[in-house]
């Protein structure tokens, strides 16, 4: 393992807002489950989740814009999370936390209705493992258990197939599509969906690629 990555992993251990639970720590559930606002953020503000957050560019970007909300990013890659953690330290962002774990464990990390909104930004397309897409029914079933009633899910991607797959899933499962576009930057949509850009998003835009976006609510059972 490169020395630089080892240094980053060591520094990750010093960040008080980065949680790296072991498997045993998630059974029966993570210690902050149901208590994130009271025992970590110390305020009653809504909790917003970014799954597969990578370097935390969207998690920290949203936190800068919305100090009235709390943000948590989840990713399994510690080296990526290090960058997001450094941004939190350097800018003294106080409404952010990160969790290093698989998104599979969201039900053990958050209680029913604890999350107000979910962001999925430029996820792995998973061309050979469609079930592992964050907008596949298996994951949406997990998200439905932690989202408040009427909570929104946002998807932002450069992958047309992922976008169409999600539209099809929304239609087939009876979820409610609120907004969608196959060309975000010529759609007239504004706000943080446009103003926050990841490193790869900027690169893809320079290459002339389309950015796809949609927002939906899960069907109430």
Please provide a brief summary of the model.
The protein has helices spanning 3-12, 36-41, 57-65, 78-91, 106-109, 137-146, 160-173, 192-195, 199-206, and strands at residues 18-19, 47-51, 70-75, 96-100, 115-121, 147-157, 176-181, 212-217. It is built from 9 helices and 8 strands.
Describe the model.
With 221 residues, this protein is an alpha/beta fold. The chain contains 9 helices and 8 strands. The chain has helices spanning 3-12, 36-41, 57-65, 78-91, 106-109, 137-146, 160-173, 192-195, 199-206; strands at residues 18-19, 47-51, 70-75, 96-100, 115-121, 147-157, 176-181, 212-217. The protein has an 8-stranded mixed beta sheet with strand order 1-4-3-2-5-6-8-7, sandwiched between helices. Helix 1 (3-12) packs across helix 4. The N and C termini lie far apart (47 Å).
